[in-house]
Amino acid sequence: MTMIINETLRLYPPALSIFRRVSREIRLGKLLLPANIDLIIPTIVTHNDPKIWGEDVHLFKPDRFAEGVTKAAKNPMAYLPFGLGPRACVGINFAMTEAKLVLAMILQRYAFTLSPTYVHSPYQRLITLPQHGVQIILHAL
To answer: How many distinct structural domains can be found in the chain?
Structure first.
């Protein structure tokens, strides 16, 4: 279930970008970043880059995460749905546990199918949303 959630968050990250301020001058490879500038890290772009994730980047493949998050991509820091490092989302463990619990409870009680009218159309604003809502049909078990 963790691999499915991770792949879903890769394709549809909750936040499309991460914003950071450079506190002191720092060199990143050949790039010199001056202090007090703002950076925007486009999560949605990073998560959809074939140079990082492979040519099948747009396919839903939970097996990418079979060996963990750090080995899922060519760059171990490429997976950013909750940010990274000391400024990462403090709720990551709670969010993952809650998602697993809710999914387990739903799957114990229901089978589900996509609505015949479903059209895949993610809508990106500050977050990624389904443009036409979540179109699934639940069937009690």
So the answer is: 1
65 within domain boundaries: yes
Annotated binding-site residue? 89: yes
**Residues whose CB falls within 8 Å of the CB of residue 100, separated by 6 or more in sequence, listed in order:** 1, 2, 5
Structural domain boundaries, residue 47 = 2-102
pTM (2 d.p.): 0.86
Phi, psi of 56 (to 5 degrees): -90, 25
Strands (E), the chain: 18-21, 26-28, 31-33, 38-41, 110-114, 122-124, 128-130, 136-140
In tens, the pLDDT along 62-119 reads 999 999 999 999 999 999 999 988 888 899 999 999 999 999 999 999 999 999 999 9
